[in-house]
Specification:
Number of domains: 1
Distance between the termini: 9 Å
Largest sheet: none
Order of helices and strands: HHHHHHH
Oligomer: single chain
Radius of gyration: 22 Å
Helix content: over 70%
Structural class: mainly alpha
Number of helices: 7
Length: 177
């Protein structure tokens, strides 16, 4: 009864709705991140090398230090905030702690590696193109795993809550109040 009188069920519903909307928004970000990558390059080393080092036959210039720095500056902050937020949400799932740690760590590593890989291709060696491809795939897969894990966990908790409320004694009395 206290649960209904204090309005706690409404706060829980609101929190669930906000988290689900956030996850939907992040899923759209995830899709656009992939589309942007594939708009610029593909999953071949040659396409990555051409993007970062330029391709005279396509009249493209190498990425400049300044353009890489601007992109990196923005991405380090925004991807860091995204991963921290998703990692925070995954803490509340029923996954084993070790799996949570690995998934979060891989996501952070994928985000940093994806940023560093472009610099390495441009200024160290074209062979780092394979590292760029792997880092991008790791980032996308780990972000997807976090999004799906948190979404499924939240939906499962909502189902369990409904079952618990439906089987609670005195349910008819609380519904009439």
């Amino acid at each position: 009864m206290r649960f209904f009188v204090t309005g706690e069920q409404n706060r829980q519903m609101m929190l669930n709705a906000v988290v689900l909307l956030f996850l939907g928004y992040i899923a759209l970000f995830w899709i656009s991140n992939g589309l942007m990558y594939f708009h610029k390059m593909g999953l071949t080393a040659q396409s990555v090398i051409e993007y970062y080092l330029g391709a005279p036959e396509k009249f493209t210039q190498p990425r400049s230090y300044q353009s890489l720095l601007e992109v990196t500056h923005f991405h380090l902050f925004s991807m860091g905030m995204l991963v921290v937020t998703l990692a925070h949400l995954v803490l509340f799932t029923a996954l084993p702690t070790l799996l949570k740690v690995w998934l979060t760590g891989l996501t952070f590593f994928g985000a940093v590696a994806d940023e560093a890989a472009g610099w390495l291709v441009r200024f160290a060696h074209p062979g780092f193109a394979y590292f760029k491809i792997g880092a991008f795939l790791l980032l996308e897969l780990s972000l997807a795993a976090l999004i799906v894990t948190v979404s499924l966990s939240l939906l499962a908790q909502r189902s369990q809550q409904r079952v618990k409320e439906a089987s609670r004694p005195g349910r008819a009395l609380t519904e009439t109040l």
